[in-house]
């Protein structure tokens, strides 16, 4: 089985022979779970070994990156682990080059540069994730401020404002952009019957529109979308 560059040129021929493959896979698992090596480095080195073995006819890259994520998740957050796949995809040439350099004869199996390259990808993935989270936090702060301004402007109850804040978050982050009566009830910790009263407040204020009857669903009105874009007017 071959490991190839994105353009199709072979980088590496995998290990052959069922016995050899089984033995090296056992070594890989032992390496990944070793207590004698820091777990991040062990996970990365085991990733190299899996791709070196290349045990399957197809899917070795996806399987190897899945196993890498599985082992990294012991020490890293799930968002970091999930974002790493995107970072590797964005740096495919550097990723494959790290394998080539690690396998060079003059390198004599030294994996320091390979480990450093993957650690760099992890750092890049974390930096991108932090940047995205900071943007989301800013959006949440903006939504919370607008929600409070609308609560005061329309004389909304605290429960109605809480549901409105949930609707605003749906608009900002959820592709469905709608909230069911069940969602509204969970948002304020009350029954659906009680939640219906508070939903009525924001419907009457024209901040949301009904997008479904059975079950009841609401979503941001065009007026609220405009407010989220331009801010609350003072009139």
From TrEMBL:
<dbReference type="GO" id="GO:0005524">
    <property type="term" value="F:ATP binding"/>
</dbReference>
<keyword id="KW-0808">Transferase</keyword>
<dbReference type="InterPro" id="IPR003812">
    <property type="entry name" value="Fido"/>
</dbReference>
<feature type="domain" description="Fido">
    <location>
        <begin position="1"/>
        <end position="124"/>
    </location>
</feature>
<feature type="active site">
    <location>
        <position position="54"/>
    </location>
</feature>
<dbReference type="InterPro" id="IPR036597">
    <property type="entry name" value="Fido-like_dom_sf"/>
</dbReference>
<keyword id="KW-0548">Nucleotidyltransferase</keyword>
<keyword id="KW-0547">Nucleotide-binding</keyword>
<keyword id="KW-0067">ATP-binding</keyword>
<feature type="binding site">
    <location>
        <begin position="58"/>
        <end position="65"/>
    </location>
    <ligand>
        <name>ATP</name>
    </ligand>
</feature>
<dbReference type="Pfam" id="PF02661">
    <property type="entry name" value="Fic"/>
</dbReference>
<protein>
    <submittedName>
        <fullName>Adenosine monophosphate-protein transferase SoFic</fullName>
        <ecNumber>2.7.7.-</ecNumber>
    </submittedName>
</protein>
<dbReference type="GO" id="GO:0016779">
    <property type="term" value="F:nucleotidyltransferase activity"/>
</dbReference>
<dbReference type="InterPro" id="IPR040198">
    <property type="entry name" value="Fido_containing"/>
</dbReference>
<feature type="binding site">
    <location>
        <begin position="95"/>
        <end position="96"/>
    </location>
    <ligand>
        <name>ATP</name>
    </ligand>
</feature>
